[in-house]
Amino acid sequence: MSAQCVAQSLGIELQKMPDWTCCGSTPAHSTDELLAIALPARNLLIAQSAGLDLAVCCASCYGRLGAANIALAQDHRLQESVAEILGQEYKGNVHVRHLLQILYEDVGISEIRDAVTHHLKGLKIACYYGCLLTRPRELSISSDPEDPTIMEEILQTTGAEMIDWPYKTECCGANFSITRPSTVERLVSQILRAAKDSGANCLAVACPLCQINLDLRQQDIQERFNLPVFYFTQVLGLAFGVPRKQLGIGKLMVSPDEVLAGTTTGTPPY
Amino acid sequence: MEQVSLYGSNKDNLVGAVMVCGGGIAGIQAALDLANSGFKVYIVETSPSIGGKMGQLDKTFPTGDCATCILSPKLVEAVRNLNIEILTQAKVEEITGEPGRFKARIRMKSRFVDISKCNACGECEKVCPIRVPDEFNRGLSKTTAIHKVSPQAVPNAYVIEKRARPPCVSACPMGQNVQAYVALIAQGKFKEAAEIIRQDNPLPLICGYVCHRPCETECQQARYGDGISIRALKRFAIEHEATPVADGNDLPADSEATTQTPPTQRQPNATRVAIIGSGPAGLGAAHWLAREGYAVTIFEAMSVPGGMMRAGIPDFRLPRKVIDEEIQRILDLGVELRLNSRVGQDITISSLLEQGYKCVFVAVGAQKSAGLDIEGENLSGVYQGIDFIRQVNLGENVNIGKRVCVIGAGNAAMDVARTAVRLGAKDVTVVYRRTKKEMPADPSEVEQAIREGVKFVFLTNPKRFLGEDGVLTGIECIRMKLSEEKDASGRRKPEPIEGSEHVIECDQAIIATGQVPDMAFCQDITIETNKWGLVKVDPITLETSVPGVFAGGDVVAGAGTLSEAVAAGRRAAESIHRYVRGDDLRSGREPDSRIWTEDDHRELELIQKRQGPIKKSTRVNADHEAYTPEQAVQEAARCLACGICCECMECVKACKPKAIDHDMQDTIRELEIGAVILTSGYDEFDAKIRGEFGFGRYANVVTNLQFERILSASGPYAGHVVRPSDGRQVKKIAFIQCVGSRDPANNRPYCSSVCCMAAIKEAIGAITHTPDLEATIFYTDMRTFGKDFDRYYERAKSQGVRFIRSMVSRVVEIPKTKDLRLTFVANGKTVDEVFDMVVLSAGFQPGEESLELASAAGVELTEYGFCASREYNRTATSRPGIFVAGAFQGPKDIPETVVQGSAAAASAMELLAPARGTLIVEKSYPKEHDYTDEPPRIGLFVCHCGINIASVIDIEKVVETAKDLPGVVYAEAQQYACADNTQEHIKQTIQEYQLNRLVVASCTPRTHESLFRETARECGLNPFLVEMANIRDQCSWVHTNDPAAATEKAIDLVRMAVGRASRLKPLTTEELPVVQSALIIGGGPSGMTAALSLATQGFDVCLIEKTDRLGGRQMRGPDKHFVEELAQQIAQNPRISVFTNSKLRKIEGHIGNFSSQIQTPQGQETVKHGVTIIATGGLDYLPHEYLYGQNRRVITQNELEVKIEEGLSELPTNANLIMIQCVGSRTEDRPFCSRFCCIQAVKNAIRIKELRPDVSITVLYRDMRTYGENEIFYQKARELGVIFVRYETENPPQVIPDDTLKVRFVEPEIGYTVETKVDHLILSTGMSPATGNQEISEMAKVPLNEDGFFLEAHVKLRPVDFAAEGFYLCGSAHSPKTTAENIEQAQAVAARAATVLSKPVLVVGGQVSVVDTRKCVSCLTCVRICPYGAPAVSYKNGKNRVEIQAAMCMGCGSCAAECPAKAIQLQHFTDTQISFAVKALLEAID
Questions:
Q1: Among residues A98, A119, A142, which one ends one of the domains?
Q2: B443 in contact with A at a CB cutoff of 8 Å?
Q3: B443, B692, B698 ranked by CB distance to A270: nearest
Q4: If you placed Cys at B133, which of B139, B556, B925, B937 could pair as Cys (CB 3.0 to 4.6 Å)?
Q5: From B444, which residue of chain A is nearest by alpha-carbon distance?
Q6: Which is nearest to B544 in space by CA: B521, B564, B562, B566?
Q7: Radius of gyration over every alpha carbon of chain A, rounded to an integer in angstroms
Q8: What is d(CA B1471, CA B48) in angstroms, rounded to the nearest whole number?
Q9: Which segments of chain B have a pLDDT < 70?
Q10: Residue A214 covered by a domain
C-alpha cells in the first residue's frame, strides 16, 4: 500500500505482476535445489514476457529471484532443466531490484528530498535491513554488506534522525516463527533491545516478513519495547504528506501514535 | 661477476649512483650502506618525510626498544650524509635504460614549503585554521593542513596538504575563497575572515545579504544534508570584523583601523577611466581600478548610485544603509561619481574618449523589462516588474491594486510579489508556467513569500490581458503540462493543454519575466551586439568591438546576478589595466585547472566516513536573521575543508623565515643512476573488508598500527591506553589475529609474518602501562619463529597475557557502553565475551604506491602484488639492475627488512663496483689555525628559536649578562642560530673578531652540534672548540610557567658552557690504512655467498672451512644444486683463497687491520684482513626421542629428503607416513624455534604427494609456522590431502615399538585418541648451534646468546654486525633459518663489510679516551667495563700498561669514570673542562 503511494509520488509506475507465485523462500531451497530455482524463475518468466524489470519489496523474494538469476546465468544445464519444467526458456534479462535500490539509484536522493513536504522531526529511526538484503555479497543491495546505509540515506531526507546501531543486518528469525518460537523471541528481543539502547524510538524495515515478525512478536516478549516497526515506505509516505490511512499506519501492531505525535503537522524542510 | 662482464671494467660505462625508491628502514639501510661505500644515492620517497612505517611503531620486539629512538639516528645520519640526496613527495614515473646506466624521471610534488628555509618552528601550525585527520596517527587525531608529518620528521620541515580547488570557490563568480573565510570564522578569527572576503569582493556586505549563493549549491556537505550557510556567514564576518575573537587569544581588533579606510586622494596625473553605470559591475571595476591608482569617474543616469542593487532589490531584503556604506567605501578610494549623467543623452562615449579618458567601461545593466509580447500589455494596470520595483525603491508613488497577479518565478518576481504584499495588496498571486520545482527563485525567497501570504498558480501561462475601457480586469491563461522533452536549461519543457483556457481576475498585473539592456548609450558609436541584443564582448577580456571600450555585467550577460556583475567589474579592471600598460590582455587568464572532480569527492567521502556522522546545521534561519558569534562558529565548523589547505595565507603571515610559497609547482627531475632499489614497503590491509569485526564502524575497534600509535608517547593519547570512544582507560582488550592474512577469500592467502609477535608486544605494552589490564590474543597458530621470539611468547604467558586458539566470528558493539561483544568457539562451545577494546592484527599488503612504482620500473609482481623475486636471490627482480628489499618483496619484520636493505645494496655494489667512488663528494676544509698559545676569545650566539625559547626566556638579558663573562669577546642574539644565513654570519664574526671558541646557546647538541662544528671547521676553527648550551629542551620547554627562573637558569647554563669552552682544546684525528680484504669463517652457502659478493666487488677474500669441502649442511635436499653451483663459482674466482680442513687459531688487531692465524693441513698461515665475517653455520639436531636410532622406520626430515630424491620406490602402496614437528625444538632444554622445519615438512609432504598420491601423510604439529608466502605451501598440502593434526605440548604423540611401528596421538579439539600403524615416522628435528662457536666467541671476543648462537650488535637495526667494529655474522651462526634467508644475510654482510673495505683509510681519534701510562697500574677495570673492547694491555717501555685503541673507542667515557687510579681522561670531557664548567656555575652562586 505505502510502497505504491510512495512510488506514485515519485513518478514511478508499478505494475502488479499477473499470476505471480511464491518465490519458494527458505522452505524451497532447504528442500530442493531445482525447486528453489524453478519457483522464482517462473516469476522471472512472467516479467520477461511483460518486458519489465522486477521491483521487489521483500528481502527473501529479492534474494531468491536474484539467486535464480545468477544460478541460471552460470549453469547452462540448470537453465535447460528449468526451461523443461516451465516449458519456456528464460533469457536472463530481467533485472531484479529491491525498492530501496530503485529509490536510491533511479529516483535519487535529491528527488526524494524535493518530494518531502513534512518534516518528521522527533522520529529516531533504527534502519533494519535484516539478513537477506545484503547477503550473499554478490546480491547485496549495498557495497558494504556489514554496514549498509542506503535506507538511512533515503530516510534522512524526511528530517527524521537516523540511529547508528549494530544489529541492522542481524537475522530476526522470521522463518522459525512457527517451528522455534523461543529462538525467534530471543533474536527479536536482541534486535529490539539494541535499537532501543542505541536511542531509537522506532524501526524502519525493508521486508514485510521482518516487519510482521518484529512488530507482532513484541506482544509475546516479556520486555516491553514498545517500538513501532514501519515498512520504510510508510515513513517516506508520511513525509510526502500521504494520508495515514493510505499508508496503513493504523494496521501496525505497536501503535506509532506516540512517536508520530507532532511530526505530521511539521513544516517542509526549508 | 657476470653482470660486470657485460660492461668490461670500463668505469665510464657505469654510473656510480643508485636510486632507492622508498625511505623506510629498508631504503635507509640500503642508502647508508651504499653512500658509506662510495656510491651516490638518491632516496626517492613519496611522502613528505622518510622513516616509513617503523617510525609509527611504539616499541620493537623482542627487546622493547623505542622504535623512534632507534630509527631517528639512522634518519639523521642519512639526511646528513653528503652523498645521499633525499627527494620527498617524489614519485618515479619512468625508468629507462639498462643495468649500470638507467635514467629515471621523477615527479616532485610541490610541498609549498621551502625545505632549505623552514626551521620547523611551528608558528604556521598555530595559525592554520584547517583540521585534517592525522595520517601518522592513523586518523586517531587531527592535524593542521600545514604540518610536520611527525615530531621526528626527516627532513625536519613542514608540508602543506592540498586537494583540488573546493567546489564552493570554483562556483563563486568572484572566486571568493569561501573555504578560507569559513575556516577562519570557525576559529573565531572574524577579522581575518573579513579580510579574506574583502580581498576579492568590494561589496561584501551586500553579497552577504542578497548573493544568489552558488557556493551553497555546490557545498559538498549538501550531499549529506544541509550545506553550509555561507552567505549568512559572509554577512556575519563583515558585520563582526571588529569583534574581538571568541576565544580571547588575540588582541581586540582596532575597529577604526579595520572598518574605515581613510579617503584616498587621487593622483593628479593618473590615467583617467570612465565607467558608465554605478551598479555592481561599475562599482566593482571602479574599486579595482582606483586601487591600481587610476582616476576613475562613474557616470550614473539615476539620481542615486547603486544601479539594480538599489532599484531592483527591495529594502526589506537589502537595507539602503548597507548599500550607502559599501558604495561610500569605494568612493573613498578616490572615485568620482557623477549622478544624473545619462550616457547617450547627456554625454557620449566618443566624447568621453575625446575628453582624455583612456578607457570606457560600459556597465549600464539591463534596465528594460523584456515584457511578454502578448495582447493587452498596454492596458492600464499592467506593469513591467522592473519599472514597478524601481519606482517603489526610489520612493516614487506607486498605485497598488487589490488583486495583483505577478507573472514569472525568478527572484525578481518574488521581490515584486512581496513588495506588493507590503504595499497593501489584498491578494497577490504568482502565475508560473512550470511547477514549484522548476522555479529559478531562491527556495528561501519562495518560502518567505508563501509565509507572507503570496499564492502560487503553477502550470499556468498568460495568453492575453483582458480589459474594459483600457483598464485591466483579468488575465486569460492556459493550463500547461511538462513534456518529457527537456529544454536548454535542462528542465522539462512546458506545453499548453489545448482548450484549458480560463480567466484569472485581477486589477493589476506585474510582468517580472526578464530584463534587457537599454542600448540608448551607444547612439554615437557602433558597438557590436549579439542576436539577443546584448553587447558582444570577448569573454576573457571583455573588450567590445570598439578599442578602449569594455563592457560587462547585465549589458553583456542579460539579467544576471550580483556576484557575476561584480566579477565582471574586476575582469574589466584587469583588462583595462593591461590595455593601458600595453600588456597582453589574454596571457595567464586561462580557466582554473584545479577543478574538483568526483574522485576528489570520493576521497573526501572516505575521510568523512572515518570521522563519523555529519553534524546537523546550526542555521537559525536561511538568511534574514543574523548569526550570533557562537552560532556562526558552530555553523562554520561544519565545513568539510574540501580543498584541505584553504590558502587563507595565515601561515604565510606567521612564517618568519618566509619559507612558504602557495604557488609552488610540481617539478620533474631526471636522475642518472646505475642501479635501482625498490623499497616502497607495505600498506595495512583495509580491515573494513572484514566487516564482521566492525572496523571503521565501532570506535573502539582499531588496527594494530593504530594501537601502536595509542601506545606511543608521541601518539594521540600521549601513550595512555584509552578508548577512542570515550577516553576511558582500557581494562580488557582483545587482539584478533590474521585479519587480512591467511585469508584466501580476500586474495590474501599468505601469512603476514610479524603480527603474532606484534600483538604479543602490544599486549605486553598495554599491560606495562596498565598493570591490571587483561589482554587476550585470539590466534590460529602462534608464529613466534624468530630469534628469541619463543622466549618472548613464554614471557607474555607468564605476565598474564591470555592466548585463545580460536578465530573470532564477529564483533558487536553494545550500544550504551560502546563495549564490544566477541563471539568465538572455545572447547567446542560458542562463547560470548565482552571487551573494552579490540585490536585487529591487519595484515600486510603491497600499497598502491608500490604497484605504481612497479609499473614505472617495469618489474613483475607476484599474484598478490608483491615484487616477484628469485628463489635464492630475493633482492633480484625480473629486471636486471633493479633490486628489491623490505616488505615490498614480501611480509617481514624489521631485522629481515634491514638485512634485505643491505643485501640489495650489495647487489647494486656488485653491479657497479668499477664505478665506486666516481660520483661521491668529499668536503675539504681550510687549514686549522693554531690557537695553542692564545687566550680564549669566545664568541657567543644565543638563539630565539622563533618563540620556542624567546617566549619564555629573556634572551636580551642572557646576552647582556654573558657579555661580561670571562673570555667572551662577542655575544649576540639570533632569531634562528641554525638558519643558513646565520651560519654565514657566524663565520664572518669568527673571522672578524678572531674568535677561537664558539658557544651556541640554543637546542640540543644531539641534533645540532655537528652543524656548528661544521661551521667552525669551514673557517679554520678546530671543531672541538665548539660548545653548546641547551637552553631549549632543558630550559624553555620544561619551565614554560616560570619565565624569570628559566631566564636565570639559561644564564647559568650559558655560564657553564662559557666556563668549559675556555678550557676546550683542539683535538686531532688520525688516519689508519685499511687492509682491503676480508676473512670469512665457514664455507657453507652463507660464507660462500658473502665471499663471492665481496670478490665481485673487487675485494680479496680468505675463506676458511673446517671440513674437507665447501657447501656446509646443504649438500643434500632441494638446495643441493644451488650450493654446488656456488662452490664451483668460488673455485673459479681468483680473488678468493679457500682453506679447507682449516681452523682459526688466533685473531688480533682491530677494524681495518686484523691479523689472524689459521691452522691449515699445511701448517700455520697468517692472514691480514680489514674485516672478519663469522658464517660458521649450525648443526642438524640429532634426536634421541621417538625411538630414533632404535627403529629403522623412524627417520628425520633430512633423511626423508634423500629418500624422496631416490623416488620413494621402497614405500608400499597406500603407505602411511606420520611427521612429528618440534622434535628437539621449543623444549625446555632448547627453547627456540628452528624456523625452517614446518616449511620443510610441508614442502616434503607436497613432494611426496606429487610423486605418490596414494601415500597418506599426517603431520602432528604444535603451531604450523609456515610464515610469509610459505603459507601457500601449507594450503596446497592440505588441498593435496595431507592431514594436519595438532598436539598439545603436555600430551605429545607416543610411539609404540612393534614389529611394525605404531603412533598414538590425541586430537585436542575433540579429545579423540588415534592409534595407527605407520610405515615411516618422520621427525622434524631442527637445528643446534655449531660446536665451534664457543671457541670462536672467545678468540674474537664476540658474544653468544643463551642458546649458543652468535649475538648481533642490535637485533633490530644491526642484525649482521657485531658490537665490536669490523666483525660481522650471517647465516645459521646467527640463528636457524631457511637457505634463502641465510643467503640474504650473507649478501647483507658483504654490503656492511664493503663500507669498511671501500675506504683506503679509517679516521680515528678525537673524542676518545687516553691513558696516562704513568698512573696506570693495569688493574684491568677499564678492560672489563668497556662495551667495545677498546682498552688492551700492551707491553711498552718495559711495562705492561693499558692502551686504548682509538679505532675501537666510541668516546662514551665509561673507562674514565671507572678508573680507580684516575689514569684515564676522555678527551673533550676532561676533568679540567668539567671542573671549569662547575666552577663557573659556583662562582655565580657566591
A1: A98
A2: yes
A3: B443
A4: B139
A5: A270
A6: B521
A7: 19
A8: 44
A9: 1-12, 225, 243-266, 607-625, 1114-1115, 1437, 1486
A10: yes
> Long-range contacts made by residues B954-961, C-beta under 8 angstroms, separation at least 24?
B954/B1043, B954/B1047, B957/B1047, B957/B1051, B958/B1001, B958/B1031, B958/B1047, B958/B1050, B958/B1051, B958/B1054, B961/B1051, B961/B1054
CB nearest to B815's CB, from A146, A147, A198: A198
Same domain, A26 and A136: no
Residues A46 and A178 in one domain: no
Size of interface A-B (CB pairs under 8 A): 33
Q: What is the pLDDT of residue B259?
A: 43
Considering the domain architecture, whether residues A22 and A139 belong to the same structural domain is answered as no
Looking only at the bridges linking them, the beta strands covering B1143-1150 and B1153-1160 are: antiparallel
- Please check whether residues A162 and A86 belong to one and the same domain: no
How many domains in chain A? 2
Residue B632 contacts residue B233 (beta carbons within 8 Å): yes
Domain CATH code at residue A203: 3.40.50.11810
**Chosen domain end from A98, A131, A156:** A98
Q: Is A106 on the interface with B (CB under 8 A)?
A: no
| Residue carrying the nine cell digits 662514551 | B1452
Do A152 and A217 fall within a single domain? Answer: yes
CA-to-CA distance for B635 and B228, rounded, in angstroms? 7
CA distance B7 to B741: 44
3-state secondary structure B569-627: HHHHHHHHHHHHHCCCCCCCCCCCCCCCCHHHHHHHHHHHHHHCCCCCCCCCCCCCCCC
A175 in a domain, yes or no?
yes
Looking at residue B6, its pLDDT comes to: 40
CB atoms B622 and A166 under 8 Å: no
Q: Please judge whether A166 and B812 are an interchain contact, meaning their C-beta atoms are less than 8 angstroms apart.
A: yes
A38 and A120 assigned to the same domain: no
- Is residue A11 exposed (0-12), middle (13-18) or buried (19+ Cβ within 10 Å)? exposed
Residue B719 has a CB neighbour count (10 Å cut-off) of 16
Amino acid at B1240: Q
The answer to whether the CB atoms of A167 and B447 lie below 8 A apart is no
Q: Chain B window 202-241: which residues touch A at a Cβ cutoff of 8 Å?
A: 224-225
Domain residue limits at A43: 2-98
B450 touches chain A (CB under 8 A): no
A contacts of B443 (beta carbons < 8 Å):
270
Judge whether A210 lies within some domain.
yes
Residue bearing cell 516614487 = B396
pTM, 2 dp: 0.87
Furthest C-alpha separation in chain A:
58
Contact B449, B414 (CB under 8 A): yes
* CB proximity B814 to A under 8 Å: yes
Contact call for A166 and B816, based on CB within 8 A: no
Asked if the C-beta of B82 comes within 8 angstroms of chain A's C-beta atoms, the answer is no
Q: Are residues A169 and A191 in the same domain?
A: yes
Asked if B834 has any chain A CB less than 8 Å from its own CB, the reply is: no
B801-821: pLDDT as tens digits: 999 999 999 999 999 999 999
Residues A51 and A145 in one domain: no
Does the residue A241 lie in any domain? yes
CATH of the domain at A63: 1.20.1050.140
Interface pTM (ipTM) of the complex?
A: 0.89
Question: Mean per-residue pLDDT for A108-123?
Answer: 86
What is the CA B444 to chain-centroid distance, rounded? 43
- Strands of B1163-1169's sheet in order across: B1143-1150, B1153-1160, B1163-1169
Exposure on the CB side of residue B849, measured as CA atoms within 13 A: 21
Answer yes or no: are the C-beta atoms of B175 and B284 closer than 8 Å: no
Q: How far is A197 from chain B (nearest CA, A)?
A: 6
Residue B497 has a pLDDT of 92
pLDDT at res. B253: 39
- Closest by CA to A64, choosing from A99, A103, A22, is A22
pLDDT, mean over chain B: 90
